[in-house]
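Hi there, hope your week has been kind to you so far. Please have a think about how the structure follows from the sequence. I've dropped the whole record in just underneath, so have a look:

_____
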Amino acid sequence: MLKKNPSQLEFIALMASLMSVVALAIDALLPALDLIGISIGTVNVVDNQLLITMIFLGLGLGPLVFGPISDSLGRKPIVYMGFGIFIIASFICVFSESLEMMVAGRILQGIGLSAPRTISIAMVRDTYNGDYMARIMSFITVVFLLIPIIAPAMGKFVLDHYNWQAIFYIQLIFSALVSFWFWKRQPETLHIEQRIKFTSHIFVNGLKEILKSKATVGYTIISGFITGSFMVYLSTAQQVFQIQYDLKEQFPYIFAGIAISIGTATFLNGTLVLKFGMEKMVIYSLIAFFGLSLIYSVLFYSTPNPSIVILLTFLGLQFFAIGFLFGNLRALAMQPIGHIAGIGAAITGFISTIMAVPISTFIGRFVSGTALPLFMGFLICSALSIAILFYLRTVKEQTKAMVENTN
């Protein structure tokens, strides 16, 4: 049966929902990290951060399989395959009795969820390009960010009335509903004539194609630094707010406030990117992110934590800057490789995530007594990102000058 194309609004909502299962699997678990740690016998409290960072490891590994296959078989079958793996992994987590088993389940969850996450980006690239693609990605991210706003509060509610295992069951119900909607309403976006025959060389060939584009590689590395910064916050937020500031009851609302900050910026980006372009938006945002990190690090170096109001002000402003980066960086990286969108989304996602996991794990180990290491990590990551950005601009200007001289 031929499916009717959904409206642009429904397409945005559907792609955001595919991504949202990832956010739900991460953010709903945040209020329960200490209880899960007790249940599985975690000795060191910082080991609980692995329940957040390790799902990202799976999110980085999975696309290396799902991306190339989707370029050959089409997008939709891969989404169903990913959700199947996610269901199995969720039951592993529910019945975990050790940290090792829980980490294995979380990695497998990430591998499964990497399918809808990667395929949604590929489907956007199949349908749109240029600044308009960045606009659509911004609106998708805004809808997607509704989940981080409500997920911790939902997780706490479930925890207060049931147990931490129930959080995983709710994730399963949500993923089943999204799968049904996707099956019923979304047509295949990769037409048969555009598909690439699956061979043992498809990954190598795709990687060679990506490495030819300095822009794709550069923006992917920047995305890795920014994702790493964000993952440090995700993995340490519960520790900072619940343990350092003793705000266990207020934590879901604090987390929601930060998510609203990101969402507001992302929504504004959908309009501003058409006016200023992706590159300028990335430049301005990275400079703001770096400046705020530097100010905080200087003001509170070797001092106790500032008041919660000051901390939230800095975090709110920094994540407002980050809100302009996610969609634009991804769109800039994907723009030169639209002809291999599946493997392109897979490899770029793999590189940025594999960068982000050790960055967040390393920095997170220092976030024990104060929140300062969090901002020091922001500072280093943003400084390196700015250096790469200016290198890319220099290369672009040199290439442009060579073309003009040739003509």
Notes: The chain has a mean pLDDT of 87.
